[in-house]
Amino acid sequence: MAFNPTPRQFKGLKAAIFILALVPFARLVYLSVMGSLTDPLAFITHSSGDWTLYFLVMTLCVTPLRRLLKWNWLVRLRRMVGLYAFFYAVIHFTAFLWFDHFFDVAEMWKDVLKRPFITVGFIAFVLLIPLAVTSNNAMIRKLGGKRWQWIHRLIYIIAPLGILHYWWMKAAKNNIGQPLLFAVIVAVLLGARVYWSMTRKAKAQPARA
Amino acid sequence: MLIKRSSSHAVPLGSEITPQAIYEARRQFIAKMALGAVAGGALWEMANREAFAQAPSGAKIAATRNAALSTTEPLTPVKDATTYNNFFEFGTDKSDPAENAHTLKPRPWTVQIEGEVKKPMTLDLDSLMKIAPLEERIYRLRCVEGWSMVIPWVGYSLSNLIRKVEPTGAAKYIEFTTLADKTQMPGIRSRVLEWPYVEGLRMDEAMHPLALLTVGMYGQVLPNQNGAPVRMVLPWKYGFKSAKSIVKIRFLKEQPRTAWNISAPSEYGFYSNVNPNVDHPRWSQATERRIGEDGFFQKKRKTLMFNGYPEVASLYAGMDLKKFF
Lengths: 209, 325
Hints:
The structure holds two protein chains of two kinds. Helices cover 81% and strands 0% of the residues of chain A. Chain A is an all-alpha fold. The radius of gyration of chain A is 19 Å and the shape is globular. By secondary structure, chain B is an alpha+beta fold. Chain B has helices at 20-54, 78-83, 96-100, 125-129, 158-165, 203-207, 259-263; strands spanning 64-65, 110-115, 121-124, 135-142, 147-157, 173-178, 198-202, 212-217, 220-221, 231-233, 246-252, 287-290, 301-302. In chain B, strands 1, 4, 5, 8, 9, 10, 12 and 13 form an eight-stranded mixed β-sheet that branches. In chain B, strands 3-2-11-6-7 form a five-stranded mixed β-sheet. The longest helix of chain B is centred in the first third of the chain and has 35 residues, at 20-54. The interface between A and B is medium-sized, with 19 and 27 residues.
């Protein structure tokens, strides 16, 4: 499955993904403005949360796909996908601060501390901020590749926290099909990395004859 | 002065005659315009029918407004009240019941009444509706999820039915069972709740005049998605306490197990009275959003104790409502 887009194709692909990733946002705005939704505020909250998770999972897919398909160029799309995850997370958080608490930060803070599913969601959101801030070439240069990479490994904590947030939010409804699906996908994606890192170490230390 | 007289039967120049292709095209164009208008009209009508389909299209029900037990707050648009529903027997999304409930057959329908009563009976819908005069009551509805509506229901106080069947002295609780029929209710296939859906009340709660045995809303028979043909409405309790599409009413000595309490006992208690001071474990119950009214630019409104029905407070005198939530 060796596929290597020409620079032109890559540009086109990137532009297409950029636009496609805005479709959920456009839909959200359109449906809310059209007034066809009975509870637009709940819809915005849920849909932005869903899309944050979808984009988080997509960023986690990049490395395994690169390894399996040798699609190295995928890595050059990852920043954009990651920033979209942050974009939808910002909408999700804003919806919470606005619709649930009408910008009363003290009230919001109480909610964050009181309810475990909000606590973990909030932590995941805060941890995403340094990733978004350092998602540019200047920051990579400034920090140095190694340190930059360490910061971006926070995603291994953020993604499970995001799933946990979703799981706990749904838990009591006996309706955990979707969170379970997310959990399995993320477990496989992170598990693959653990497996690869272990086999690499095993190769690096050949058994003594 | 030279006046050019044109002869009345002058033959027009060839260049002035509209070529056949063009006049045919014009005629086609006119025909298409007409057709377009007709088609547009038809589409418009279909669109309207679609809009009407969302409103209850059932038979009208005659009822006398009970003003004393009605709020004067603005009604929730009927479209919202009939398309934004929690009725898990038809799916877990709010839009599912309106989409799927057409498979429910609300007639013929019987309600079986049994247990600790002197006169157990099975009533068909018509006899059930004749037990007491139908009243229209405009009640607030507060969902446990934090939204609310104002709905004009049609029914009569459940106490009328209870008196008719004469509970024994041993009857302390009443239990409502919702239909659980896979062929009529696609949601039953999911394990999201234990089926059938069961709800219950203490006998004194059931006897309270506000407890409404309901057969209609907005002046018409109940739409399927709202719990046709007969449901409870208990305005001082969270919405899920009001069982829909009731097939059985039992009078019991012991407190019945109820659907949401079985599913998540730490989140949904037997009483489930609207109470702004007792949070749901996952969200606050202090405020609510009125569907169709409260939008982006105002704070959520304060939730009232017993949903603004203080007349039920005496039922719970001396009870710790934090414990019996």
